[in-house]
Amino acid sequence: MVLVKEREMEIPVIDFGELDGENRIKTMSLLDHACDKWGFFMVENHGIDKDLMEKVKEMVNSHYEEHLKEKFYQSEMVKALSEGKTSDADWESSFFIWHKPTSNICKIPNISDELM
User: Fold this and answer.
1) Do 22 and 63 lie in a common domain?
2) Rg of the chain in Å (alpha carbons)
3) In what residue span(s) does the Non-haem dioxygenase N-terminal domain sit (predicted)?
């Protein structure tokens, strides 16, 4: 498995271009290992158009800025952290408890025709 050092952390990299060849079993094994031991991984050669990925990224960032950012910074968790206080909550719980809106069912981002 290839590991990419991203800042101070190594991240497993899975080459999806190998899924349809003679290295399928090895690639699936690497994928299983990354999921089981790491919980995440980086994907290479996934076949998704880079322009489309950038458009989706812009849409997600715009939705965050418009609907989520202000509430996130007003959360008790962020206030405590900015004051230097610590918490027993882990980062994942903090993110999902305080960042996720109570209901976002009515706040569906505008998806341009280009992404459909």
Assistant:
1) no
2) 19
3) 11-99
